[in-house]
What does this fold into?
Amino acid sequence: MAIIIGVPPDRSRHSASHSLAIVQFPLRLIERRMLAPSVGHYRFVRDDGQALDFAPGQFIQVHFAYADGTATKRSYSLASLHDHARGAGDPVEIAVSYVSGGAATALFEGLEPGGQVQASGPYGRFCLMPGDANRRYLLIATGTGVTPYRAMLPQLERLIDERGIEVVLLFGARTPAELLYGDEFRAFAAAHPRFRFVPCLSRELPAPGSPHAHADVRHGYVQQHLAEFAPDPATDIAYLCGNPNMVDACFEALKQAGLPVPQIRREKYVSSK
It folds into this structure.
């Protein structure tokens, strides 16, 4: 499971959550599937007949109790593809990383279609900003940190069409089996030449001829390959999401490349049981 720690830039950055009131609501599970051996994709609908209006990049919190009755919560970035005004019945999608012995893992592994969890939100400011005038986005992630970028795909498609931006998604995983939403990102890259999907695999490269094998696959960690894409303060805004060590390493590398802090937007995921 992940505790999401937003790392805000300077005070000039405004919140993408607008003036939405934070609410609590029931979510009913309608579908679940495995994205990787230890990551599940969960598809809910709000069970109170209301819509969950959110900005891509935001997250929700799921509320539950430990065995002794102590209340707790976990944070999950929204993976829902957000390409229209939200309506009642629209899916609320998240990716859940399983942690051995974790209380939240037990909650989700035991949740069957039709089951309910309590949630609140949306929260967070890890979003594409309306006033951005950059020519390129560098989106960098590890593990479930790629989830908000899935939600951003419709927004990125519009920005590619309207402003001609370029996007590079560097996604770090250990093996091809752990490339969450990899099929979707590859398909998006194939349909949009200004979007590059660059999987960085630290342990195992894809077998020749497999769907995961393509020219942009790299061996190693994302921070090892970031310099290849020549971060430029005149053109780039970078997003970093996932493992804190990766976020910190890439943050320092981007600063050394000259990007000012407001052009580097960060969110760290810390595992919790």
Notes: The longest strand covers residues 23-36. Helices lie at 103-109, 147-163, 182-191, 222-225, 244-256. The chain is about 20% helix and 35% strand. Residues 8-20 have pLDDT under 50 and may be disordered.
